[in-house]
């Protein structure tokens, strides 16, 4: 540790006492996210309890040139919350209170360390619903969701985290406390800085409070799992249902993904083995909606787009069917997957997937390729699994080489190299495939305004 870091730590210990942790166990725990590519090496971990303490931490960091990394539930998949280079981790676990709720505004004000599931349960207790949902809601925190503009499995109906944040308090890299948008629905007073901070991966400032909108809870949710002979047919099924029914989800997964999730202990939906599966969900608000869904299903079977299918008849069955999709990620995790989280507009999905699939199948004849994702949003998760006998370093190096070819296709289709997981460190070398030089220059200029000394999560998103 440098003399400067020592001096900063003395000040931090004076400020926070036992909430400034320097032990190896805390460093290892708080210094990583789910990527596990970089080894954690923070100089210390601090646990502020108030916005004022966050401001004081930023002040000390500026004085000593100490880089800061924000840490929430650490469920990120792009190494945006990894401290691998002597940074100070600012963990928000102690700022985990629900501060206010107003039923007329249908809005709840929370601290950043509130766990997503805690917010969802609070909304339910008020007879309302927080709709941003994904597999890691049991540990992810609202502050992290805001930093990455988290998406998930209900985006087709409810949008991303950005769409639910009506107010945001942030501490910038200058140490200023900004109170952005103040929970308003309508506010036409110039640049909406709130949206700059959402999805900025902690590179401009840290979220210290958020006002989150809630909505009515969905009623009588019903899921269908369908098996399709090919990927193009999956898209035809999406189109057929979307024409008539407001879907709350449309997810897809390949036979390989299905194989892993079944091995993981989830029950098969039906006996027919299909190359692709989709899971779609809707509110069965009336009997007619259910009947219409069955008619569309039969039409899809007649057209040869669907080989088999099942529809949930109870909440228990609905939850069971969702396991098929929600547990894919954990079922492939032991195979050290190399992850891609790519998107294009819906109309381009079939050609795009065909082009990418060809490149990866040719490049990795010996690797298992697992496709799944939020196909109703044009967002595919392409996971390449490491063969058991190949060293991790060599595997990641080979994957990195092929990434360029995949991202060239992404660029050709005007797509995104990261639909929802963020850029962090894993996708930083490839940002130029999705954002122009002018875009990146503008982002750097914005960072300089809010974080002139480059102490807020440096080395993530881009290098300055
Ligand atoms: O593991 C992945 O690649 C995706 C994780 C998550 O975004 C999901 O949709 O399940
Ligand atoms: Zn996802």
Short description:
This protein is of the alpha+beta class.
What can you see in these coordinates?
This is D-2-hydroxyglutarate dehydrogenase. One of its GO terms (molecular function) is (R)-2-hydroxyglutarate dehydrogenase activity. InterPro entries: FAD-bd_oxidored_4_C, FAD-bd_PCMH, FAD-bd_PCMH-like_sf, FAD-bd_PCMH_sub2, FAD-linked_Oxase-like_C, FAD-oxidored/transferase_4, Oxid_FAD_bind_N, Vanillyl_alc_oxidase_C-sub2. This protein is an alpha+beta fold and 464 residues long. It has 4 domains: 91 residues, Uridine Diphospho-n-acetylenolpyruvylglucosamine Reductase, domain 2; 119 residues, Uridine Diphospho-n-acetylenolpyruvylglucosamine Reductase, domain 3 (2-Layer Sandwich); 109 residues, Alpha-Beta Plaits; 103 residues, Alpha-Beta Plaits, CATH 3.30.70. The chain has a 7-stranded antiparallel sheet, sandwiched between helices. Strand 17 and strand 18 form a beta hairpin. It is globular. The relative contact order is 0.12. The mean pLDDT is 97. It binds (2R)-2-hydroxypentanedioic acid (2HG) and zinc ion (ZN). The site of (2R)-2-hydroxypentanedioic acid has 5 residues, from strand 18.
Q: Structural class of the helix and strand makeup?
A: alpha+beta
Mean pLDDT: 97
Number of domains: 4
The unreliable regions are none
> The biggest beta sheet, please?
7 strands, antiparallel
Supply the CATH class of the largest domain: Alpha Beta
* Helix content range: 25-40%
Distance between the termini: 23 Å
Ions and ligands: (2R)-2-hydroxypentanedioic acid, zinc ion
The fraction of residues in strands falls at 15-25%
Rough shape? Answer: globular
Described by its quaternary structure, the protein is single chain
CATH topology heading of the largest domain? Uridine Diphospho-n-acetylenolpyruvylglucosamine Reductase, domain 3
> Architecture of the largest domain, according to CATH?
2-Layer Sandwich
- Helix segment count? 15
